[in-house]
């Protein structure tokens, strides 16, 4: 596809997601209390979107992923939380 075709096909979807992300960040900013590692992970991933390099999706995914290769003896919770809390597990 040409760049114009990609924009024609995907722009409105990307626009919607960007507005949703902005609304989420506004809600977090208006709320009280301390944010946890998930918010820090989002903040760390946001600058990756402005890169001129290819592979932004992979870079964001890796920024939110557990970089370790050793399995845990037991899961710390009931399910995935969407971001790696760091070496504290």
Written description of the protein model:
The chain is mainly alpha-helical and 89 residues long. The protein has 2 domains: 1-32; 34-64, no CATH class. 52% of the residues lie in helices and 0% in strands. The chain has 3 helices and no strands. The chain has helices at 3-30, 37-45, 56-64. Helix 2 runs antiparallel to helix 3. The longest helix has 28 residues, at 3-30. It is extended and about 50 Å long. It starts with a helix and ends in a 25-residue tail after the last helix. The relative contact order is 0.10.
Secondary structure elements and pairings:
Layout: H1 3-30, H2 37-45, H3 56-64
- In terms of DSSP E residues, the strand content is under 5%
The radius of gyration over CA amounts to 16 Å
Q: Helix-strand pattern, N to C?
A: HHH
Total of domains = 2
Roughly what percent helix? 40-55%
Write down how many β-strands occur, each being a DSSP E stretch of 2 or more residues: 0
Largest sheet: none
| Structural class label | mainly alpha
Question: Which descriptors would you attach to this protein?
Answer:
single chain; 89 residues; mainly alpha; 2 domains; 3 helices
Would you summarize the structure shown here?
The protein is mainly alpha-helical and 89 residues long. It has helices at 3-30, 37-45, 56-64.
